[in-house]
Design brief:
alpha/beta, 13 strands, six-stranded parallel beta sheet, seven-stranded parallel beta sheet, 394 residues, 15% strand, 16 helices, 46% helix
């Protein structure tokens, strides 16, 4: 089984790949093909038995993403400053022109896909798993004719018909398109009725069933996610500011790293939230689990979310979850007044009101937390293993 990814750095797809290979490594011979090697080793744990092939050894995609984000946010001076720090300050002008040509060849001349085509022609596998629709488009053309070809779609189209059509076009000649959302599965099933491809629902999974649940002894609110615009981290800080203004006893723990880290740090300082908010940066599983042991609530402020694995992880620790309904994946996991609350239309005041009331009602937190723990049992590894095994074995 060969899994094709863009990279093995930070991200939800990359975490899901790590979980999947650890789940299936004893049943299948698994290898990973990664376009880019961004770091010395994968961010998430990949077993030593799983071989990794990198098509490029470069950190240029990280820089391109950083510059694109700054340009998208119209922070032109910040973008120029970032280029200066990366190249001019250290007299890396030759490297600048090298990276510039590399970016042009990769992003505009489709160099990365040419290299993938070459790899697929010389390395055949019985089963291929594509983690992006762009990869699926290449896979159905150049993967072995007798190979089982599976697409794995983690992103929600959010009503973007252009993106939706791209996924359909790229996947229609595959054998299966695996989706992590029931609603998305139904959506794509309608489009594949007369196609070769079949849309199949397999959720993301918990890595383990925690041996503990929170004791709710601290009024800590958790936020775990990449510090980027889509995760709505500044809305989490706005929630914290409004709770502070109400003189509510609480502490917000933010776990994660990303392109907005400096801005988040500045926002915390400028709004006098340093006593109420701790930015921990990227942390491993043990660190996060230690936070789970005493936390009272989990807060998701994402604008969009295809699945919301972090919600399940918090629920597994018996922690009630609150999220905005714009995060579609959260809508399949959170039931109002059962294991948490979904806030419609990103109503900030309603979010703050729910947190305020819950922090004043420990018994209600325990009730919701018990239900959250029970719900999380539906996503344990063995259940998901059966679903993948049945799919690959067909």
């Amino acid at each position: 089984m060969e899994i094709i990814v863009y990279h093995l750095g930070y991200g939800g797809i990359e975490k899901a790949v790590s979980s999947l290979v650890r789940l299936l490594k004893d049943q299948y011979e698994i290898s990973i093909v990664s376009f880019y090697q961004l770091y010395d080793k994968p961010v998430f744990d990949i077993p030593l038995s799983v071989s990794i092939t990198y098509l490029y050894h470069t950190d240029v995609p990280l820089k391109v993403k950083k510059y694109n984000q700054l340009l998208h946010d119209k922070k032109y001076s910040a973008c120029l400053k970032a280029v200066f720090q990366d190249y001019v300050k250290g007299f890396h002008l030759l490297r600048f022109f090298h990276d510039l040509w590399f970016s042009i060849s990769i992003y505009f001349l489709n160099g990365r896909f040419r290299r993938l085509k070459k790899y697929l022609k010389s390395n055949q596998s019985d089963v291929y798993l594509s983690t992006r629709y762009e990869i699926s488009k290449i896979l159905h053309q150049f993967g072995g004719q007798s190979s089982l070809k599976i697409g794995w779609e983690h992103n929600h189209h959010h009503g973007n018909q252009v993106y939706r059509n791209q996924v359909i076009e790229a996947s229609q000649e595959l054998d299966y398109l695996v989706l992590v959302s029931r609603a998305l599965t139904q959506d794509y099933q309608n489009d594949f009725q007369n196609k070769k491809c079949k849309a199949v629902y397999i959720p993301n999974m918990l890595d383990e069933n925690l041996s503990f649940i929170s004791d709710y002894s601290e009024k800590r609110i958790l936020f775990v996610g990449r510090l980027e615009k889509e995760k709505g981290v500044f809305d989490a800080l706005e929630v914290a500011k409004r709770l502070q203004e109400r003189m509510i006893s609480f502490h917000l723990d933010i776990v994660g790293d990303g392109p907005l880290r400096k801005e988040v740090e500045q926002n915390i300082y400028e709004r006098n939230l340093s006593s109420y908010v701790t930015l921990h940066g990227f942390q491993n599983r043990d660190f996060i689990q230690n936070l789970y042991r005493h936390a009272s609530l989990y807060l998701m402020t994402s604008f969009t979310e295809s699945f919301g694995l972090v919600l399940l992880e918090a629920m597994n620790a018996g922690i009630p979850c609150l999220a905005f309904s714009s995060a579609e994946g959260a809508c399949e996991l959170i039931s109002n007044d059962v294991n948490g609350y979904l806030i419609e239309e990103r109503n900030m005041e309603e979010m703050v009101n729910h947190i305020d009331l819950l922090l004043k009602r420990p018994a209600k937190i325990q009730e919701l937390g018990k239900n959250a723990r029970e719900f999380s049992q539906n996503f344990l590894p063995e259940s998901v293993r059966v679903m993948w095994t049945l799919l690959i074995g067909e």
